[in-house]
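Example 3.2
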Amino acid sequence: MLQASTRPATVPGWWRRWPTWSPYAAMAWSVLYGALALSWAAGTPGFPFGEGDPEGAAMGSVLFAAPAEPPDWSWPDGARRA
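Structure, written as tokens:
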């Protein structure tokens, strides 16, 4: 017959201290993903969504038809403003 253990579960020390390190892990992930997003915006290949995604339409992605290049936005008078 199975008996419940009265001994507390042993958890590694680093996992018990997750409230201490989790904000730093979240910040590191955010900085790395932000840098990756900036590289994609600068034109680095490898953006996982858009017209280069072979499975986008099959997976129901709303971005499967997004063009790789941004549209040429201009004002009605034809002048470009930054």
